[in-house]
Write a structure and sequence with these properties.
This protein is about 75% helix and about 0% strand. It has about 120 residues and is an all-alpha fold. It has one domain. It is rod-shaped, with a radius of gyration of 40 Å.
Length: about 120
């Protein structure tokens, strides 16, 4: 019959332990290498994200300053344009729905519709 003899002597056992120890060491070194690479990648991403957020904050502050300057310098011109639209809307009733839609001419002289 097929009988397998298991003659594991001390030398065979020591050899198997050495092979297993080598595999375990190789696996641990591979895991360590992957952990170092992933850590380096996260640090790299964190550095550039932080640098980018600082740049974005600076750009946002510059944009906000430009908008404030634009509003400060152009507000009188804008108010004059709105005033002219209102005057034009008073003499041309067909433009009133457009002015009301965009909030240029909010006040109307017509009475409110009765509630039903």
């Amino acid at each position: 019959m097929n009988e397998t003899q298991n003659n594991n002597g001390p030398e065979d056992t020591q050899e198997e332990i050495a092979v297993l120890r080598h595999q375990l060491t190789s696996t641990l070194m591979l895991v360590l290498a992957i952990a170092v690479i992933v850590t380096w990648y996260f640090a790299y991403q964190f550095y550039f994200t932080l640098k980018d957020s600082r740049r974005s904050a600076k750009a946002a502050n510059e944009t906000r300053a430009r908008i404030e300057e634009f509003n400060r310098t152009n507000e009188p011109q804008f108010q004059e344009l709105v005033r002219k639209f209102r005057e034009y809307g008073k003499t041309h009733p067909d433009v009133m729905p457009i002015l009301n839609k965009y909030g240029v001419f909010q006040a109307t002289n017509t009475p409110a519709a009765p509630k039903k």
